[in-house]
Specification:
alpha/beta, Rossmann fold, GMP Synthetase, Chain A, domain 3, 3 domains, nine-stranded mixed sheet
Length: 543
């Protein structure tokens, strides 16, 4: 059944129970993010804490669905969402689904050009955006508004958009009863290889339902559980981990902020039982406990039963250290891609903590295989490409048949990740085929950074790679070859790179000749070998 049926059911069975809490513990110091430099510049008027019941959640989704229908949005049309986590996010998402339209969440890190590119690639008919994105939308407002509705969620609606609050207030709270099946298209998410701009990933409602049911099953989410959601909801990981609560009919907390004290305070105050963390957040909590800045006894944490991590490889030493402080915690890790509707096509399983380091075994209703270059299954213990198959596999890369054919073969999704399976059947990631850098759970695409740095008039050539980092998993490093007869300093490169979003700026810079092979391709494995060993030594020295 479509995932919207769970919301209808919860509104009927648990109408007055709290479904969602928005928690902003630093309201007086919270700032709005600038579209240009991602800096804290403007106070936010949002209240400290808000909550809605399942009934109100469902009614808000119905109102938005009816608004979309009244504005000509029909089944199969596409509605983009670019907002920070807030109490409106999920009702808007479900309103899109209830209208029969396709939900298209945008990464809130996208710059103005990426927003325009994705809107045109996915052929979206409406863009719903929050106050933090006014500047980015305004840059291309003329092109974005051609054939599209721009809907603003917040106070002070800009002149080039219409107000969500004003329009939705007059809409019916009754379900529009648009017929939906699992075979209807439900969502487009975005991914990207090393070639730059994202690809649009089309999923049916079947994928969404599969992800929701799988999450509830994997983590045994029950009615009494409270899920703490910190990562952004555009991310398949955050949304589909939350959907375990949707299936269970239990409460979830959307937390703004990821500082150790903020996380532990939220767990304590809201009585959270399940928390999904990224590696850096878990490391920050451990460091704060180690140095005494945080003390467990200052918080009520006895109800916290499960800590799970995803989005990047998890160091086994981190989990071991976590167990020093939280010996009774269940632990899990999940592997997935946007092409597989996010996390869980492979998962460790709460009962398999002895196998920390592995990504796990096939998830609920999933199959896995590891193959060689000719798509033949390799022997157990040998390295090959991980392939997955199940009801959460994407339909296609929207408007990209060639890219679809490269990764979808006879129902199998070729992930591009190299893996091996041990004698017990557990899968371990070995390396990535692609050059995508995963830093703090975010994908960074080297070609985009390389193209930017090449604009600097002193640069002859550049190669961007990922290097190991204890906290973030990887950091971005740029090897730069300067034009003959010129001199360049690290400070000049850093200043030039201020034109990049902060998370894309190189953390390390090396001035050297760029190695290329006989066909002219940059030898990135050689660069990683050259600099990676030094980084590992530095990391060990810091330990």
């Amino acid at each position: 059944m479509p995932v919207t049926e769970f919301l209808k059911r919860n509104a009927k069975l648990y109408p007055d129970e709290v479904a969602l809490v928005e928690l902003n513990p630093e309201v007086e110091d919270t700032r709005r993010i600038s579209w240009k430099e991602y800096e804290l510049i403007e106070p936010s008027p949002q209240p400290y804490r808000r909550e809605i019941t399942w009934k109100v959640f469902d009614e808000k989704a119905n109102r938005f669905a009816n608004l979309l229908i009244s504005r000509g949005i029909k089944k199969g049309d596409k509605v983009a969402i670019i907002m920070y986590n807030c109490l409106e996010w999920l009702p808007i998402y479900f309103g899109v689904l209830k209208s029969g339209a396709i939900a298209v969440p945008f990464n809130f890190r996208y710059d103005a050009e990426e927003i325009l590119y994705c809107a045109e690639l996915a052929e979206v008919d409406m863009i719903v955006f929050g106050p933090e994105f006014i500047g980015r939308i305004e840059q291309n407002a003329e092109r974005l508004s051609k054939g599209r509705l721009l809907l603003f969620v917040g106070d002070g609606c800009p002149s080039f958009a219409e107000s969500y609050r004003e329009l939705v207030a007059d809409c019916s709270s009754k379900d529009p009863e648009i017929p939906l099946t699992e075979e209807d298209f439900g969502a487009i998410y975005f991914s990207s290889g090393t070639t730059g701009f994202p690809k649009a990933i089309l999923h049916k409602h079947q994928s969404l339902t599969q992800a929701a049911e799988m999450e509830q099953r994997h983590h045994e989410t029950g009615r009494e559980d409270v899920f703490l959601c910190i990562p952004p909801l555009y991310h398949t990981g955050a949304k589909f981990h939350w959907m375990g609560s949707l299936v269970a009919g239990s409460r979830a907390v959307l937390l703004k902020g990821a500082k150790p004290d903020v996380i532990l305070s939220a767990v304590s105050r809201e009585k959270c039982t399940i928390v999904w963390l990224l590696v850096p957040w878990a490391q920050d909590i451990l460091e704060a406990l180690d140095n005494g800045k945080l003390k467990k006894e200052d918080y009520e944490l006895s109800q916290w039963r499960l800590m799970h991590i995803g989005a990047q490889p998890v160091p086994p030493s981190l989990v071991a250290h976590w167990k020093d402080y939280f010996p009774d915690h269940q632990y899990d890790t999940n592997y997935g891609l946007s092409e597989s509707t996010g996390p869980g096509c492979v998962h460790l399983g709460m009962e398999n903590a002895h196998k920390v380091g592995a990504i796990g075994v096939p998830g609920y209703r999933w199959e896995c295989k590891i193959v060689d270059e000719d798509a033949n299954i390799v022997k157990q213990g040998e390295v090959g490409e991980l392939c997955v198959k199940g009801p959460g596999v994407m339909t296609c890369y929207y408007n990209n048949e060639e890219a679809t054919a490269e990764v979808l073969k006879d129902g199998w999704l070729f992930t591009g990740d190299m893996a091996m399976q041990d004698e017990d059947g557990f899968i371990f990631l070995v390396d990535r085929k692609k050059d995508v850098i995963v830093s703090g759970g975010e994908n960074i695409y080297p070609v985009q950074i390389e193209n930017f740095i090449r604009k600097f008039d002193k640069v002859k050539d550049v190669a961007v790679i990922g290097l190991p980092d204890k906290r973030l998993g990887e950091i971005t490093a740029a090897s730069i070859e300067i034009k003959e007869g010129m001199e360049c300093t690290r400070e000049e490169i850093d200043e030039f790179c201020l034109g990049l979003p902060r998370y894309k700026r190189p953390r390390e810079v090396f001035f050297e000749d760029i190695p290329r092979n006989a066909t002219g391709k940059i030898e990135k494995p050689r660069l990683r070998k050259m600099h990676g060993a030094d980084m590992l030594v530095a990391m060990e020295n810091k330990s």
